[in-house]
Amino acid sequence: MELAIFLMASALSIAASILVIIQRNPIASVMYLLTSFVSQVILFIMLNAAFLAMLQIIVYAGAILVLFLFVIMLLNLRREDFGKDIKLKFKPLAIAFAVVLLFETTVAISSSAMLERAQAQLPPEFGSVQAVGMELFTKYLYPFELTSILLIVAVLGAVVMAKKRL
What's the CA gap between 45 and 56, in Å, rounded? Predict the structure, then answer.
């Protein structure tokens, strides 16, 4: 049962992530991104990391996606702004990469010894508030702050681009 839930959540996450990239409509792309985030929440819950799952919903699905939608609506993109339809020139290469990814995923899932080793390596406090806080504000403090600066610059850039159009 657990393996079936893992496979469905993983497949949904991969499919939604691919659709985020393929989609030409930015609103639909954001909705597929939301689907990907929710499927990753299922994977966090399966790891007994409820705190990380809630952070994923609150921070990414709640705040970041709202920010993306705000910027998309602010830009007021029209159909002609998307450009011409581009034919996939590298279709054989994309299919080859997809087959390799499917093979790697199948091998990784079928190896139950690898799954058992991965679960045994997790510390008992994995995913707790204290563990996440210590990692975030010690080891990953600078990347965390750089990400917030990057998001602010992206929003300001979108506002400047939208203002030039009006």
Answer: 11
